[in-house]
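Open question from group meeting: does this chain pack into something compact, or does most of it stay loose? Before anyone orders reagents, we agreed to write out a predicted structure and look at it together. Recording both the input and the output here so the notebook holds the full record.
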Amino acid sequence: MTRIDDKAWFAPKTFGYGAGLPIAWQGWAMLAVMLGVTFGLYAWLMPAHPGYFSASVIGMTVLAMPLMAYKTRGGWRWRSGRD
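Structure tokens returned:
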């Protein structure tokens, strides 16, 4: 059994485009921080400003995407399940 040590944080998706589940503690930490920020923003912004909440979550996701793409094993590309 060979061990792949490419410093990837996320596994590639089997089908489609993008990243799958985290495979390293850094990926899990990034996911936990993003969820924590999302729930914090929900509690703070959602009651009075639902539009600000939506814009904040979309902005956070867009800002995180380049790092997620860089740290996905094999990068982001279309996968049809036969790879």
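Observations to bring back to the group:
The mean pLDDT is 88.
The chain is about 50% helix and 15% strand.
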